[in-house]
Structure prediction request, 479 residues.
Amino acid sequence: MKKYDAIIIGSGPNGLAAAITLQQQGLSTLVVEGAETIGGGLRTKELTLSGFKHDVCSAIHPMAMASPFFQSIPLRDYGLEFVQPTIAAAHPLDNGDAGILYQDIHQTAKALGADGKKYLHLLKSMVDSYTDLSEDTLGPLRLPKHPFTLASFGLKALPPASWIAKLFSEEKTKALWAGMAGHGMQPLSNWTTSAIGFMLMAVGHRYGWPIPVGGSQAIADALVRYYQSLGGEVQTGLWVKDVKDLPEHKLLFLDMTPKQILALKGLDLKETYLHQLKKYRQGMGVFKMDWALSEPVPFTNKDTRQAGTVHLGGTFAEIAHYEKTAHQGHVLDKPFVLFAQQSIFDNTRAPEGKHTGWAYCHVPNGTEADYTAAIESQIERFAPGFKDTILAKHTFSAIQMEAYNPNYVGGDINGGIMDIAQLYTRPTLSLTPYRTTNASVYICSSSTPPGGGVHGMCGFQAAKVALNDHYGLNINLNI
Ligand SMILES: Cc1cc2nc3c(=O)[nH]c(=O)nc-3n(C[C@H](O)[C@H](O)[C@H](O)COP(=O)(O)OP(=O)(O)OC[C@H]3O[C@@H](n4cnc5c(N)ncnc54)[C@H](O)[C@@H]3O)c2cc1C
Prediction:
């Protein structure tokens, strides 16, 4: 049997990024995936009716556009095309108004009226210095290359989102902010919840919030095509339970979370390390829904009809209350809903004249509770008549999300909570958290810095460390 320089277990964006980075340096590598198709969080399937293509997990890709790793490889040449929705994101309110994230920062500021100046003051420098910022934030903790830029970002990003909200006077600005910071899947009173809000807004102004033509599967397909063009190999349909079931190899990369790593036999990790992995904490889970629709969602606010992503949940206070209470383990009936309407901008997603809807809300980790009625009522609240457009629907409870992909432990889509104590010290307290106590085993999943989202940076960073450890190579991204 062939001996590989490296085997990567898991074909999510991080597993593929690690594999590509190693293969680019001339190593012989194999990606092993348990599911029948590659992609991890990047899959698109006909979950409802024939001809309706639904993103099973990720749908909106600002972090893919902003990823230095993705920017460094020619994914366009391998079939990947993004489309930019007319409006990146909208946050409708009960009075028919909406907070709008346009790609143009000045247009956004103007639409925010009295808060426009403050908005520009907070965001403009982040947008302008994003490239420098990404060098110091999308990897492990280390001495910053751009200390002043990072310090200026840190002063704004470290405080809880609830503090930043107080800087704004208009409800629609506060609500827009709540929706952005809400992506962090934590109570908005937690430290660093502003970081994810600012990052998503800054990236939105710089790169937009695009969707891949054909669905998120198109990102995985392009990554694999590029990987195979370099000579990389892929095997699907093999759930690895014991390392000895794998072909011979020198290095092993795990696109897995601590829970799965603890269950994997043959890794030969030290007890002290295993003890740390056992203490790793998960965040909230998600309840995920997809719909086949007879027509576009009839949002009352006209701009919202042109937004790729829609945040539904009302005011800052409502969203903050929901996130805090769900985090504490309670099931509520007015969730903060993250909704996407890809078919408005990509006509490959549904039969002519028909549409798709995609949504999830944050729920207590591991709950089996059914949020179908709660999610649909939140959409109906801002789009009366929505329920009449439903042709078919599909749901995943938090527990079913984990059954679909074991990396989503209890439905947690970020590979572990990304709070201040675990943002960079994931999965263990280390300056090089990709290493394990076995010198030939590395972790490359979203349970390492910089965490959840489709950007491949965890995989790239893990491969970079291993190439240095074993081959003395010091690689950098070619962008
Ligand atoms: C509902 C939902 C919505 C999301 N929306 C977005 C979004 O809009 N934008 C965004 O950027 N991110 C989004 N995400 C998050 C994003 O999908 C993840 O952060 C990302 O996929 C993590 O990548 P990864 O490579 O670390 O792991 P994954 O993509 O989860 O891949 C891990 C892979 O490893 C495989 N695997 C695990 N264990 C084994 C084993 N023992 N043997 C073999 N194979 C194994 C799994 O089958 C899986 O294919 C969303 C996620 C979900 C679930």
